[in-house]
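Human:
I keep going back and forth on a fold encoding question. Comparing notes only helps if you start from a blank page. Show me how you would write down a chain together with its backbone fold. Write it directly below this note and I will take it from there.

Assistant:
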Amino acid sequence: MTDKSTIRRMIRKAKTDLTPYYIASASHTITKRLEQHPRFQSADRICIYHALPDEVQTQALINTWCCDKTIYLPVIRQDKIYLSLYQPHDALVAGKYG
């Protein structure tokens, strides 16, 4: 079995091979599929991460739905994960992981 640090290293390496075009294209496809899912459509509240530059981009999804759904973002404090209510006018503060 592969340990966590090895898996993380492999993922970091694979992410460096992704082009900005690929990330944007995949982000668009994933966002559209998510928005079409019945559970997403019926949800009043969603929890989603705010993406780093090398991840599937979530900002468009957050911006589109922040007025119609209650959005929560994960926040890490002292190695514990909490959910924080997203308010469009609030400034986001970079945390331990970005």
